[in-house]
Design goal:
Blueprint lengths: L2 E6 L4 H12 L4 E7 L4 H11 L3 E4 L13 E4 H9 L6 E4 L7 H9 L4 E3 L2 H18 L3 E3 L2 H10 L7 E8 L15 H5 L8 H9 L1 H13 L7 E5 L5 E7 L4 E5 L5 H9 L21 E2 L6 H12 L3 H17 L5 H16 L10 H22 L4
Parallel strand pairs: 1-2, 1-5, 2-3, 3-4, 5-6, 6-7, 8-9
Antiparallel strand pairs: 8-10, 9-12, 10-11
Helix pairs in contact: 3-4, 4-5, 5-9, 5-12, 6-10, 8-12, 9-11, 12-13, 12-14, 13-14
The protein binds NADPH dihydro-nicotinamide-adenine-dinucleotide phosphate (NDP) and magnesium ion (MG).
């Protein structure tokens, strides 16, 4: 019997790669539930293709009655119901941003087998998520390529023999040639190895994406920051490695497409029986470089913020979302992003004393506070006429 899969965020980039895996292995997986947000037409074509039993959108669409075999749910309540669907064998979260947090919590509390790409929820609420995971005796299987590689490696070696884990980073477009005040949005979106959405591509150029991934790894693998390293690997073929107690490095390599780590996660603890095509390392050059931290201050900031914890990681995420959005609209320059985020964290730290206590109730107000700080900083900087 195929495993029954629920996919939240089916219309996004992670969603599309997951659908590719489901189409590739129809005897292994069957899509029984899915959600989307703004792309209603895309959801309709997925309903026609997969005939899911449950679908969730912000509002029930006027064409819902044409599909009597599908139950339509709406809003946040619907999303939570979908994330804990009793008949589901596997819940996959491909939603972006903090909107993924409540479904994540719901899936954990329902003791579901949970796979997630939603790094914002883990960065913002890692300690809470880990507490619920411990209570439910569950784990999150990561979809992000680096974390999936590390997860695969850690499941094969005893943790007390792991000296450190190493996340690889492409270095983005500015590793060889640093950004300048003239750097344009197009220069930034021209990622050398990965094809992703514009927000995550900007984060890759500032290397804050790797910073978020370091924080994500800290919570997912419950390791101190001192045991989490980053190495620049411009080819993006090795996704993660671990250094063992004797100095041996062991690593995972695959083509740079998200369908590979997603398939690995969906088949876990097995591995996909066949690949898409042969992946040959012959003729490929694999390079590794230390991170020039002085050129990527947001990666250092993420380590600092991660060590402080509390509401700071979520503030870093919210500041970044606002400031990067202003950059993508052409309101500020690329080099302003680093400066404004550093300033934003300082201002956030100066706001009140209870920033170290994280609770479900403190998340939303802290997020709004960070967004207000970011918008004020952007409006003081704006070059738009
Ligand atoms: P996309 O923007 O491509 O997709 C986001 C998905 O979430 C879409 O299905 C979207 O629906 C849905 N969505 C957006 N806002 C809401 C909301 N408020 N409520 C419910 N659903 C919502 O993002 P990605 O697929 O790129 O990323 C998803 C997550 O995976 C992120 O956390 C990202 O950091 C992480 N990730 C992504 C990688 C990648 O290669 N893209 C790699 C590793 C991690 P709709 O489109 O219908 O509006
Ligand atoms: Mg990644």
């Amino acid at each position: 019997m195929p495993k029954k899969v629920v996919l939240l965020g089916a219309t996004g980039s992670i969603g599309s790669s997951t659908l590719e895996v489901i189409r590739r292995y129809p005897e292994e997986f069957s899509l029984i539930g899915l959600s989307g947000h703004s792309q209603t037409d895309k959801i309709r074509s997925l309903v026609e293709e997969f005939h899911p039993s449950v679908v969730c959108l912000p509002e029930i669409p006027n064409w819902a009655s044409l599909y009597p075999g599908t139950t339509f749910l709406s809003g946040e309540k619907g999303l939570r119901k979908l994330a804990s669907l009793p008949e589901a064998d596997m819940i996959i979260i491909g939603i972006s941003g903090l909107a993924g947090l409540l479904p994540t919590i719901e899936a954990i509390k329902a003791h579901k087998h949970l796979l997630s790409a939603n790094k914002e929820a883990i960065v913002a609420a890692g300690p809470l998520i880990n507490q619920w995971l411990s209570e439910a005796e569950k784990q999150i299987i990561p979809l992000d390529s680096e974390h999936n590689a590390i997860f695969t490696l850690l499941s094969r070696f005893p943790l007390n023999r792991v000296k450190k884990i190493i996340l690889t980073a492409s270095g983005g477009p500015f590793f060889h040639t640093p950004a300048t005040p003239e750097t344009t949005v197009n220069d930034v979106l021209n990622h050398p190895t990965w094809n992703m959405g514009s927000y995550i591509t900007v984060n890759s150029a500032t290397m804050l994406n790797k910073g978020f991934e370091v924080i994500e790894a800290h919570y997912l693998f419950r390791l101190p920051f001192e045991q989490i390293d980053v190495l620049i690997h411009p080819q993006s073929l090795v996704h993660g490695m671990i250094e063992l107690s004797d100095g041996t490095h062991t690593m995972v390599a695959s083509p740079n497409h998200m369908k590979y780590p997603i398939a690995m996660a969906m088949f876990y603890p097995d591995i996909p029986p066949v690949g898409e095509n042969t992946f040959a390392l012959a003729g490929k050059t694999l390079e590794f470089y230390p991170v020039p931290y002085e050129r990527f201050p947001l990666l250092s900031l993420a380590y600092e913020v991660g060590k402080v914890g509390g509401l700071f990681p979520l503030a870093l995420n919210a500041l970044n979302e606002e400031i990067v959005s202003a950059f993508l609209k052409g309101v500020i320059h690329f080099l302003d992003i680093e400066r404004l985020i550093q300033k934003g964290i300082e201002l956030f730290a100066a706001t009140e004393e209870s920033l170290l206590s994280l609770s479900l109730d403190s998340i939303l107000p802290a997020e709004q506070k960070a967004r207000t700080i970011a918008r004020d900083l952007v409006s003081q900087t704006s070059y738009a006429s």
